[in-house]
Every structure is written in C-alpha cells, then in structure tokens.
Amino acid sequence: MSPFESYMTRPLGNADVLKRFRHALYAVVLYLILILALPLHELIWGPESLIPQMGFPERWTNRLVMFLHYPGNESWYPLFFLLPFLGILVHWRSRFVRLGALLVYVGVLILFNRAYLMLVGGNYLLHLLLFYLLFIDERNEYEGTLGQLSRVSTRFGYWACRIQVCMVYAFSGGYKLISDQWRSGEAIYDITHLEEFSLPWFAELTTGMHGSMVVLNYLAMAYFLSFPVLVWFKRVRLPFLFLGEMLHLSMGVIIGVMDFSLVMMASYIVFLEQEDLVTLRKWFTKQRVDVKT
Amino acid sequence: MGKSEPSGTFTQDRLEGSIVGDDIDVCAWNFYRKTNLRIHSVGMNGQRRAIQPVVRYFIWLGLLAFILHFFLTTLHCLPEGSLSPRWRSYSHLYSYPQFHQGWGLFAPQPQDRNKRLEIRYAKGGTWSDWIHPEESSFPQHKRYRVFHYSKLFHTNQGVAFHLWRSLDEFNDKGQEGEQFYPTSMGYTVAMEYAGRYLQHFRSIEAVDSLAVRLFLEQPHSDEYEMYDFPVHRP
Questions:
Q1: Do A179 and B108 touch (CB under 8 A)?
Q2: Cα–Cα distances in Å, from A152 out to A113, A148, A159, B71, B99?
Q3: Is the pTM of this model over 0.90?
Q4: Which of A140, B30, B59, B123 is buried most deeply by CB count within 10 Å?
Q5: Residues with Cβ < 8 Å from A238, sequence gap 6 or more?
Q6: What is the pLDDT of residues A81-103, one digit of tens each?
Q7: By three-state DSSP, how is residue A52 classified?
Q8: Which ipTM did the prediction report?
Q9: Is the CA virtual torsion A276, A281, A284, A290 positive or negative?
Q10: Is the preceding omega at residue B97 within 30 degrees of 0, hence cis?
Q11: Do the strands B209-217 and B224-228 form a parallel or antiparallel pair, or are they unpaired?
Q12: Which of 147-166 (B) contact A at CB < 8 A?
C-alpha cells in the first residue's frame, strides 16, 4: 500500500469537525427554506410565480436540475420543499448518511435553481458544498472493503469542500484585484450606500468616514487574497477564521444578505482540526465560568 | 480505565465523547492520532496491510475525477476572454447547470447606482399610473432584513438588474428597440414579472398592454436617468 493509499483509507481524524460542518450546512438549509422561502413559496415556485421560467438546451442535467423550469412541472414544487427535511430526518435517524445528503442536495438544488432572481453567491457555494457532502460519511460505521471505500470517498469529499472554499476566495480576491472600484478603495463605500445593500444608520454613520471605508476596502481585499494561504497555518488559523466570521456576520447585517453570510460562516468549519475544537471548547468553557463568577 | 490512562483501545466514538475541554483530552487526542496512523497502515502482526484491488482502482480513479473536476471548475471561473472558445465550451458544458459558480457574484464590480423599476398597464383603453413594485417591500427589507422581506425586495432588484443589462446590450448593438427587446432576457423577465406582480399584489388580470421604465439614480443625489421600454402586449 502506497503512503497515499494508506492516507486515503485511514479514518478521518477530525470526524467531529465534519459532523459539525454538516450540521451547520443543514441549519443554513433550514433557514433558507423556513425563514426566507416558506412565506413566499407561492410567489417563488407556484404556477403564477413572480420569477419567470427559463428555457434551457435539451440535456438530461438541465432536465433534472432545472426540473421546475419546465412547463407543467410547477405543481411538483412541494415535493422538493419536503426533500431536504426528509434528508435531514434520514441523516438523524438512520445510518444512511449519504442517502440523507442526496435528498437534501437534490431538494435544495432543484428548488433554488428555480428561484434564480433571488440567489446570491452563497447559494451557489451551498449547492457545491452539499454536493461534496454526498461523498462524506463521517460516522465511519462500515467494515472491510466497504469501509475502505467509504473512507476514501469521505477523504475526497472533505478535501473537495476545503479546496472549493479556497477557490471562492482566490477567485473573488483575484477578480477584485482587476476591478477599478476595489483597487481605488471605493467599493465598500459604494456598496454600503446603495439602497439595495445599505443599512440606513450605517450609511449615515459612514457618510463622513470615507477614509475608514477605504481602509476597510483594502483590509477586505487582503483577507480574501490571503485566505487560501493563511488558513493552512495552524498558529494563525483560529484567529484568522474568527476574523472572517466577524467580517461575514457584519456583512450579513449591514448589506442585508444574511444567507450568503451564513453559508460562508458555515463553510469555515471544514478548516478546523480536532484540536481546534478542543481549544474552542476550552475557551467557551472559560468564558462561561468567568461570566458566572 | 481513567481518562489519564489512554490506551490502544481508543476508538473514534470514545474520542468524540472525550472532548470535554481539559488537557488530558488533548493528550488523548494526540495519542489517538498517532495510534490511528499505526493501526491503519500496519496490520496486527506488523505486516503492511493490503487493500483490495477495487479500493485501489477507486482511489486512483477518484483522484483522476477529483483533479478533472477542479481543473474544469477553475477554467469555468476564469474571466471571459482568457480562454479559447473551445476550452470555454468544455468548461461550460461540464459546469452548467449543476456546478455553476459565477464568482462575479462576489461583488467584483459593485453597482454604483440605485435602480428602480416602475410598471403600468393599459386596460379598457386607459393607462394606469406608474406603480413602484418596491413600495412596500423596500421599507420592510430595511426593517426585517434577515427575513423573507429581503428576498422579495432582492427579487425586484434582480428584475431591474436584468433590465439594466438588456439596456447595456441594446446600446452596444444599435438595433431598433422593438426588434431587440422582445428577444432580450431582461425585458422578457421584466414583462412577465410586471404581469404577475399586478396579478398578485393588485388583483389586476388580463391587461391589454404593459409598460416598464427603469430609473438609475446616483446615491445621495437628485441626479437620475430614466429609460422607457417598448410596450408589451401579453
């Protein structure tokens, strides 16, 4: 067995991290469906939807992924609404983790591709991460050859999630580098002063703080560009990810795209190692004790 | 066995249960990791453990698929014009629709103007006043931005954005508006949206004609541009 084969067939050391990562993604799915979409379900997916159906080239992938775009299929949307819940139930109550992941993925993908006018970048990332979750079974309950195959699949899924998030940062950072608005330092000021993305008190507060917004612009760029590198260094990983969580949380509240922020925040979990969880647990326990005393 | 005496019988389940936040657990974790390396690369009798051919094929084919997936995804994410049409078609063929990721969505070139869509309809020979579909969803979006109101507002803004793109395309092409717009995505989406909006929010059905116009406004300024679009007869 070569070292690579040995590595691939070995159980993941940070299965607990993957469990939390999956739970976080499923929590985002529940937020998207129950909080953001359920009150508008007729307007988004109903036969008289506000979002017009689109036509696609005849391919089986389109037939499947864009199922709700095809005339006559509109009335099927409650099924896809239920699939993610069924998937979460399967994950929770049975050992068929991948089957649960498949139901969640298919439901979310078909449902939200129909709602293309309300999607943000985070939705696309969520679809990809849910796809990679199909390969992951962090419970590692199988024995023998099946167990080895399962562990190999889990490794691939795990690394795909990590590489995917790094790709997001590398590309969005790279695109920012070739953008005039980002290079001149105006981007964040411009975004936060648009009606669509502004929070009134924040826009008022920052109107006279142009210089600070320029600094924030360059800091955001630096964060995006350095993410794919710094996230691998054990010493800086936790504070660096914590900074990112704060960045995305504030973006969610200020810019008003909470779904995007939640997906990004959830995706950070996949970079944690088991010892990071121990450190975090220790830190939170200490804070609780401090608060009590 | 106490926690302070980790032994070779540690399992993944026990490890998960053992993380309670003290130093002993960090030791246990380090121990597990080292033991784990040994157990899975070497058999019980010290021989290197063999794997089934099917596992080996799975590993190497999986690696090939993994590399190919991220190679094509990387090509798909590169800026327009940086690839030959042939490679662009390969990457698009692979990525659309299930692996699509337009990282242009991560605000690479943020919009610098507010956009506002207005619609009106003709029924029985008379035109209605202009209606602003965001009239109610905009204040709600401001107040309850983590709830569904924001999605309703963003949907409105999405329609205005597509119409704005159609306008840009129209300006580049130099065709007649009546010829160009009915074939453009933004105009088609806006007209269908307008009809459905009237139906859902104003209980108005079976209109004779629909019209939309787009306002592009400078933030914190009274300056704006207004664009009218050809009338649509549903």
A1: yes
A2: 30, 6, 11, 20, 22
A3: no
A4: B59
A5: A276, A279, A280
A6: 999 999 999 999 999 999 999 99
A7: coil
A8: 0.93
A9: negative
A10: yes
A11: antiparallel
A12: 147-148, 150-155, 157-159, 162
